[in-house]
Amino acid sequence: MRSGARLDPMGTFGAALVVSFVVIALFAPWIAPFDPVALNVTKKFASPSWTHWAGTDQLGRDTLSRLIFGTRTALGISLSSVGMAGAIGLVLGLIAGYGPRWLDGALILVFDALSSLPMVMFALAVITVLGPGTTTLIIVIVLVSFPGYGRLIRAQCLTLQGADFIQAERVMGASHPRILFRHLLPNAVGPLIIVLSMDVPVVIMLEAGLSFLNLGVRPPTPSWGNMLNDGYNALRQSPVLVIAAGVPLVLTTLGFTFLGEGLRDLLDPRLKGRLPR
Amino acid sequence: MLQALRVRSANWKQVPRGARATGKLGPLMLIYTVKRIGLAAVILFIVMLAMYAMVFLVPGDPASVALGPRATPALKAALVERMGLDQPIFVQIWRFFANAATGNLGYDVWSNRPVTELILQSFPSTLFLGAVSMSWALVCGIALGCLSVVMRDTWADRALGILSVSFISVPSFVIAIYSLLIFSVWLGWLPAIGAGHPGDFPSQIKAVILPAFAIGITWVGYLARLVRASMLEVMEAPHIRTARAFGLSESKIVLTYALRIAIVPTVAIVAVGFGSILSSAVFVEAVFSRPGIGTLMTTAVAKRNFPVVMGTVLFMTAFYLFAVTAADLLIARLDPRVRDAFRG
Q1: Residues A56/A62, Cβ–Cβ less than 8 Å
Q2: Residue B257: its H or E element
Q3: With CB atoms 3.0 to 4.6 Å apart as the test, which of A203, B63, B254, B279 could cross-link to B79 if both were Cys?
Q4: B 202-221 → A contacts, CB under 8 A
Q5: What pLDDT is attached to residue B23?
Q6: pLDDT tier at B339 (50, 70, 90 boundaries)?
Q7: What is the pLDDT of residue B335?
Q8: Separation CA B157–CA B160 (nearest Å)
């Protein structure tokens, strides 16, 4: 990394958005003005007012409070599942890139088979088997994401193994664990982190999309996708609900994307041009 | 002079002589083709096996899950027999593959209609939606990419860059809901639900505008960036410098000489992009209540209708693999470096 290198303005903007959402998620109980699941049927579909800034939903629950708690759901699911997928991809990628050739071949086949399934189709297939819910969602995200990370780490390993410093270590009789953990791992992790941060918005979208279809987070847990669905069903009565539910979704995906792009330009411009999933 | 420039622009990548000149691609291309198709076949086989294994992973037996808690034992027994779940596992797997090979993907648990029939009924609508989305995205994306290059390093280029990233990152189903709210509910310009009347083409076009807008916009951003990046690379090529030295205008250079080459990776990516478009279609079809593969899938998942879900996933995977393999072969045909790399 260049000394004194800084994020570009859009990257900084993205970072600011991400940090604000993380703060909102962490301090949700203190920030939210109301209990996100408290019903108040006398006040259903209330318009925005000084008490309910973003109005209320079909059960009279405060929309703003639900959005604030929805941040927890969105970030909790996406960060934990992307993290897990990253860890699995890292381990399998190292095995594929450093282990015996037959194992490499087998793992590549698994990676390719899993990533040749259109993501949402695969997610729907897993949900059919396991039933909708937060755990299923995390399993789905891990399953669709880790092959990409595995491939990335494997490619990094193969490139690094040809590098002079690794060859030198080997000639000097370095053990396998030493090469793996002291050299390959630290060098391969950088690109992985960038790709992970760029995948967070994809995962947030998937979570919200599946919850929108009633196949993700189960109600009454507040989730942006569930709220979009509530708002969609009341589109003509109370458009505020659907508009409000879309805003944080758009802002987080924008924030993570700008941050990821900024990080990439800063740390590893070679990753440019990765395909969207 | 222009003719000479054109010839040079086609050859600037220094393609080895012989291969392209004679039109014969030789054994390398054949080996690559066989390997690539073989790989696709193996992947499809694994996916089929995984799909089938999933039925056995279901907590509880598949028949009760599919029929729900109120099913009578007689109903369950009938379903078990129809799905062949009472046979030994190897017989079941063999049957599944043999049937799939002949185009029989099983029967809908509820309506008892063949899954293949359901898929073929809904696929054209999704394909139409995907094609319209991709077409407008290609036109606008390439145009915006060219515009960026012509105006590179100005505020307009930077604004287009930010716009492209925003297009890429905003979820398509949110765009779908917002555009539905604005153009159908508030303004009443376009239909809110359905795919138009069968046989009435204008109504079908009207119904496809908003969904295709929502799906395509991501790709406008993506293609704009891709075209810009690959065009900037091409702009360094010798023939472009020559063209510039001859005093041709920047827009003429971009449109006539650079775009021809810069567009190759773009066209190749369209096939892969179809997979992501099909994924967006699942959500967008739900928003606009459009009949199609997405709607077929989501209703089947909600009812845990295994044969329909398995059949649809299998069909879509096969379709996607076919598209990607065809695109890979096309790229190899255009770029000899790809098939050379595959030799090792």
Answers
A1: yes
A2: none
A3: B63
A4: 218
A5: 45
A6: low
A7: 62
A8: 5
Backbone angles phi, psi at A237, to 5 degrees: -75, -45
Residues of A in Cβ contact (< 8 Å) with B316: 118, 121
User: Which residue on chain A is closest to B159 by alpha carbon?
Assistant: A10
Work out the number of other CB atoms within 10 angstroms of the CB of residue B165.
Answer: 21
pTM exceeds 0.90 for this model: no
**Per-residue tokens: B325:** 């393999």
**Does A258 sit within 8 Å of B304, measured CB to CB?**
no
Quote ipTM for the complex.
0.83
Over residues A232-257, the pLDDT tens digits come to 888 888 888 888 888 999 999 999 88
Burial degree of B169 (CB within 10 A; 0-12, 13-18, 19+): buried
Residue of higher predicted confidence among A265 and A88: A88
Question: Are B96 and B52 within 8 A, CB to CB?
Answer: yes
Window 2-61 of A: residues touching B by CB (8 A cutoff) are 10
Residue of A nearest to B40 (CA): A113
* Window 97-126 of B, Cβ < 8 Å to A: none
- How many other CB atoms are found less than 10 A from the CB of residue A72? 20
pLDDT at B249 over 70: yes
What does the DSSP 8-state code read for residue A43? G
Quick one: tokens of B38? 């073989």
Cα gap A144→B269, rounded to integer Å:
20
- Residue B106, amino acid: G
Q: Is B335 helix (H, G, I), strand (E, B) or coil?
A: coil
Our CA angle for B219, A213, B276, nearest 5°, is 25
**Residue with tokens 């809908």, as numbered in its chain:** B108
* Residues B18-34, mean pLDDT to the nearest whole number: 63
**Helix or strand or coil: residue A56?**
strand
Peptide bond into B69 cis (omega under 30): no
A117-126, B15-24, B194-203: which range is least confident on average?
B15-24
User: Do the Cβ atoms of B283 and A258 come within 8 Å?
Assistant: no
Give chain A positions within 8 Å (CB) of B287. Answer: 232
